[in-house]
Every structure is written in C-alpha cells, then in structure tokens.
Amino acid sequence: MSLQLILRLRWRDERLIFNSSRLNYILVGRSRSERLWVPDMFITNEKEAQVHKTLSDNALIRIYPNGQVQHSVRISLSLSCPVNASWFPFGSVSCPLRVASYSRELTEMQLSWDDGGLAFYRGIELDGYRLENFSIRTEQCVTSIKLGKFSCVSSVIRLRRLPRRWLFTLFVPCVVLAGCAAITASFRRKNEHIVNALCFVAVIGITLQVSNAPSSDVIHAVDAWVLLVYGFFLFHIVLISYPKSKTNGCCSRRENSNQLPRTTRRFLEDNARIVFYGIFSAITLTYFIVVRLCTD
After folding, report:
1. Domain at 108, CATH number
2. 249 lies in a domain?
3. 3-state class of 266 per DSSP?
4. Is 155 helix (H, G, I), strand (E, B) or coil?
5. Based on the domain organization, do 146 and 206 belong to the same domain?
6. 175 and 204 fall within a common domain
C-alpha cells in the first residue's frame, strides 16, 4: 500500500532549554538541523520511502523554551501489507504501520502515540478501497530480538474494498447473460445456436475479467462465482442440446413409438428448465447473502 503522510515527532531534550520573553520557539534551519539529536526510528514493514523536497525540504524542527522539540516531515511510503484475498473483491484489508526504535533499547527510549495516533481525512477513497476513521487502531508494542528489547508503536489501517468495478464488469453482466439465455431458451423455436453463442461469449468475457484478479494460493470469492456461472452455462448447453440430439437420433417408427408423447416431453423439458433456473437463482442469492454476512 502506498500513502503520503506528515510524520510529527515530539520529545524533550534538557540540553536545549532556554529563557526568552520574546520567542515562543526557535525554528531550526536546514543547515543546523543535523547538529540536533533526533530519535533513530524506522518503519518495520516499509518497502520504499521518500522525503518530499519540492522547492525545499518539506521538514521543520521547532525548539520550545522548556526543551521540547517538535520535528515534522512529509514523506511518501510504500508498505508491505498482508492481504487476505479469500473474499476478493469483497471484504476488507488491514495494513499495519509499525514504527520501532532502531538502536536504543526499551530502557533508553520509549515510543508512544500522541493525540490518538494517526489521523486521516474522512471518506478517503483509493483505487477500489475506502478508508473509514473508525477502522484505525493504535497500540504500543515491544520488539524482542537477540540484541534486546526495543520500543515500538503500531497502527492498523483497515481499508474496505469497493466491488463496484467488479459488480458492473463481472457479476451484473453474468446475471444479464444468464437471463437472456434463459429467456431465449424458453421460446418454442429453434434457438439453440443463439443460446450457445450467448454462453460462449459469457465464458470468454468471464475468463478475461477474472485474469485481472490478484494471484493467490487460496480460492477467492470471485472464483466461486466463476465456477457457479461456468456450471450454469455448461448445464444450460446440455439441457438445450440434449432433447434435440435425442430426437434427431430416432430414425424408425418403432423407436419413435417408444418415446413419450410430444406434449409430455415438452412438459418435462419446461419443468426441468424451471427447476434448473430456480436452483441457479437460489444458489446466486445464497452466495451474495453469505458474502454479505461474512464480510461485514
């Protein structure tokens, strides 16, 4: 996940205490900022980071009379986030932002979030995700390694997936094509070629669209939907083609005499289609209900 943030650090250095009735704080310039002690910290799940330097360095340091130092810097981060793609394109993604001490142990320096930790603008939307304020959780933690124990602070950013693109490019077209195939097959005419063409187009479109899904070793929710639709179109082709092939295979009166009456065959075929469409509709409704309940 990539994000841009303003990181504000605050600590107290007794060596920087000064008395002044004219100054509320001292603004340290770029040339002198390297002489000050700054906490050595790092982001544990950082993949790439960049400090903004448009026109000038987007960083400042203020020193207050009581020795308190405030350091602010604007950076862009690329974080490594564990993603559970089981419910893709539904559900949510939790991405941690973990800041830890690099060299000073727990007895020397302790980190803590101030003013509630992270703050985001309400209603931020990324590419296919939405961030909500209540989804941010901050906590203090301790990192234990062979060198010792180090203080750290962690914040989990929860992003909810927005399946709008997948709804309009995969789910809705599949339902529409399935409905068109069902309506076309219900006419008392020879529409097998039209139905087969619709099924073929649907399978190609589904395959191309699903190729854009993130790769993973687990089965996605979209994979279950694709298998359901593949099964629908496959059995639909069999259901439409079987009665015709069976009728064409009869070439003698004796074989024709052993068949059921024409009205009975039509009645059974129509009922079979109704049952088949009803089962598909029930499974589709159950699919969306389960996804809704499991991803809230």
Report:
1. 2.70.170.10
2. no
3. helix
4. strand
5. no
6. yes
The type of residue at 109 is M
CB 276 within 8 A of CB 236: yes
Where do runs of H (alpha helix) occur along the chain?
Answer: 30-33, 164-166, 172-186, 192-210, 221-248, 253-257, 262-295
Residues whose CB falls within 8 Å of the CB of residue 226, separated by 6 or more in sequence, listed in order: 206, 210
Within 8 A by CB and 6+ apart from 277, the residues are 182
Convert the pLDDT of each residue in 232-275 to its tens digit.
777 767 766 655 545 544 544 444 444 556 666 565 566 666 77
Element (H, E) at 97: strand 92-101
Tell me the pLDDT tens digit for each residue of 4-28. 888 888 999 898 898 888 888 888 8
What is the tens place of the pLDDT at every residue in 102-115? Answer: 888 888 888 888 77
- Treating both helix axes as pointing N-terminal to C-terminal, what angle do 262-295 and 221-248 enclose, rounded to 10 degrees? 180
Name, in order, each residue with C-beta under 8 angstroms of 134's C-beta and a sequence gap of 6 or more. none
The position carrying tokens 């929710």 is 221
Instruction: Report the number of distinct structural domains present in the chain.
Output: 2
- Report the helix count and the strand count for the chain, using DSSP H and E: 7, 10
Verdict on whether the full-model pTM lies above 0.85:
no
CA distances from 23 to 11, 64, 71, 217, 238 (A): 19, 9, 18, 61, 86
Residues 186 and 150 in one domain: no
